[in-house]
């Protein structure tokens, strides 16, 4: 009974927040009537990741990105969004995006939109994907009442395809092609330096609390290692469910490899981003110290050989777009190729 009351109260607050957002949206629409009038008729139809046609402004000006990949993609196109959501388990955008995002307003977290803040920004387009609120039809419908909402892809999908849908929604296809061309150039340049490591195996681990999770091949970091030609251990050479795969301490050997890229999201989670902690490489180093206290961790090959590389968890162990992948490739060059301590 108590659970039902709490649930009812939660949805009452959501409904009230939505009504407030729609009210603010209506008011701000009046204030921006000249802009809207100029934009009337200047629309185009795009297809989202499900093939659904969505009518959007010809040149969107006030875009809200409702996930890390959509924020990443818009910033990669050189556009600063009107608003965005905090990164997974964070209260800010991921560290690798902070300089580009600047003072972009935060309008909720990946799973909890702030409808009032969204409506106040009077967006003309909202970009979402399968890492955010796509599995909540009520929230999707509410966002669609505020502005045209484009679904850009699903968790574990090809980041290139998801990025292409964002570029198309922004009417910036040519700019998107240039971003992908630069990515291909960076992959080729870095891959050529990795010949000494081609017979080694690489694991990507997120350490959260007192346990590990594996980042497999479907997430951007996994896709990047494959593009670079770096091998995964046999048990990790597979696609997962679009999220990290937990590993019990009894099976800690499952995370082992010749090298481990080791990250954390601190003590926070998607549902509790205020729990504290950090997701940068310094936090990864602190988590590595904690992991060494777990029985069996020091027996891992990568640990014995001092081949554990602390990395930024919000990039390596989360999800994103072309800027995240650029960060990963740059880290491979700096932290592996150019690091004398990591030579095979």
From TrEMBL:
Locations listed in the record: Cell envelope
GO terms for cellular component: outer membrane-bounded periplasmic space
Family the UniProt entry places it in: Belongs to the bacterial solute-binding protein 8 family.
Tree of life domain: Bacteria
Organism: Corynebacterium pelargi
Top-level taxonomy: Bacteria, Bacillati, Actinomycetota, Actinomycetes, Mycobacteriales
Keywords of this entry: Lipoprotein, Signal, Transport
Coiled-coil blocks: none
Keyword Flavoprotein recorded: no
Name used for this protein in its record: Putative siderophore-binding lipoprotein YfiY
Principal localisation: other
Gene: yfiY2
UniProt cross-references to PROSITE patterns, sorted A to Z: FE_B12_PBP, PROKAR_LIPOPROTEIN
Keyword Ribosomal protein: no
SUPFAM superfamilies: Helical backbone' metal receptor
InterPro entries: ABC_transptr_periplasmic_BD, Bact_iron-sidero_bind
GO biological process: iron coordination entity transport
């Amino acid at each position: 009974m108590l659970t039902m009351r709490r649930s009812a109260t939660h949805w009452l607050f959501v409904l009230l927040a939505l009504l407030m957002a729609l009210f603010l949206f209506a008011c701000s629409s009046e204030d921006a009537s000249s802009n809207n009038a100029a934009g009337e008729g200047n629309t185009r139809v795009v297809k989202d990741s499900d093939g659904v046609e969505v009518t959007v402004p010809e040149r969107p000006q006030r875009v809200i990105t409702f996930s890390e990949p959509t924020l990443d993609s818009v910033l990669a196109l050189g556009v600063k969004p009107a608003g965005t959501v905090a990164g997974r388990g964070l209260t800010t955008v991921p560290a690798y995006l902070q300089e580009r995002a600047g003072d972009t307003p935060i309008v909720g977290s990946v799973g909890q939109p702030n409808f009032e803040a969204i409506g106040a920004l009077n967006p003309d387009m909202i970009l979402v994907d399968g890492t955010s609120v796509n599995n909540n039809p009520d929230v999707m419908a509410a966002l669609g009442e505020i502005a045209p909402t484009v679904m850009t892809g699903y968790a574990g999908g090809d980041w290139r395809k998801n990025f292409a849908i964002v570029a198309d929604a922004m009417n910036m296809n040519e700019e998107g092609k240039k971003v992908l061309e630069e990515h291909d150039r960076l992959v080729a340049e870095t891959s050529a330096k990795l010949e000494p490591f081609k017979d080694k195996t690489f694991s990507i681990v997120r350490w959260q609390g007192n346990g590990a999770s594996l980042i497999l091949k479907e997430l951007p970091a996994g896709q990047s290692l494959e593009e670079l030609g770096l091998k995964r251990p046999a048990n990790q050479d597979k696609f997962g469910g679009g999220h990290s795969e937990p590993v019990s301490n009894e099976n800690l050997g499952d995370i082992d490899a010749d090298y481990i890229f080791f990250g954390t999201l601190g003590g926070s989670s998607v549902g509790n981003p205020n729990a504290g902690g950090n997701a940068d490489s310094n936090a990864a180093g602190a988590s590595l110290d904690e992991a060494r206290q777990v029985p069996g961790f020091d027996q891992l090959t990568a640990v014995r050989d001092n081949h554990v590389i602390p990395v930024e968890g919000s990039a390596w162990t989360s999800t994103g777009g072309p800027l995240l992948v650029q960060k990963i490739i740059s880290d491979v060059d700096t932290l592996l190729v150019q690091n004398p301590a990591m030579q095979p």
